[in-house]
Amino acid sequence: xxxxxxxxxxxxxxxxxxxxxxxxxxxxxxxxxxxxxxxxxxxxxxxxxxxxxxxxxxxxxxxxxxxxxxxxxxxxxxxxxxxxxxxxxxxxxxxxxxxxxxxxxxxxxxxxxxxxxxxxxxxxxxxxxxxxxxxxxxxxxxxxxxxxxxxxxxxxxxxxxxxxxxxxxxxxxxxxxxxxxxxxxxxxxxxxxxxxxxxxxxx
Length: 203
What we know:
Elements: H1 10-18, H2 24-37, H3 42-55, H4 64-74, H5 79-85, H6 94-107, H7 122-134, H8 138-202
């Protein structure tokens, strides 16, 4: 009943992932409203979103939702908010995230290849890593994938921790103010409805 009359093609789905139909600004605003309306404390929501943002810096594509949920659970934060937070990792940001994490990982001394970071096929490497993991192809994981994934993981942990702090510090006061304003609006609406109901009863 509520489904689409015509199903989206794969090209349309990819296009909307890269550029939402309503635009990134409106989509971000809508996501923030959804986050603020979740039934949880500002700490839980901000920490949960920060968990999703943090794991977006790890190279484990396909496992971000699970990792964000586990991290949020350990921190007693909102798991739903953590799922929303993984939007930080998207087709627009992943190239910058992958290059940055790889560079930081190499700078920390976690190996890597001799090639320039910008010339490495990160997307192809991570896709092959998932295929090798699915096929339990351990030699391919060790010799072809791990030299790139290892520094990305180390750098991702460092930059992800920084992203958690930034997201939490920025979001908690915003969510607290949003929830307080929304509570006042609901109270005013309820008071107005009660006044109108009392007026009807007097008539």
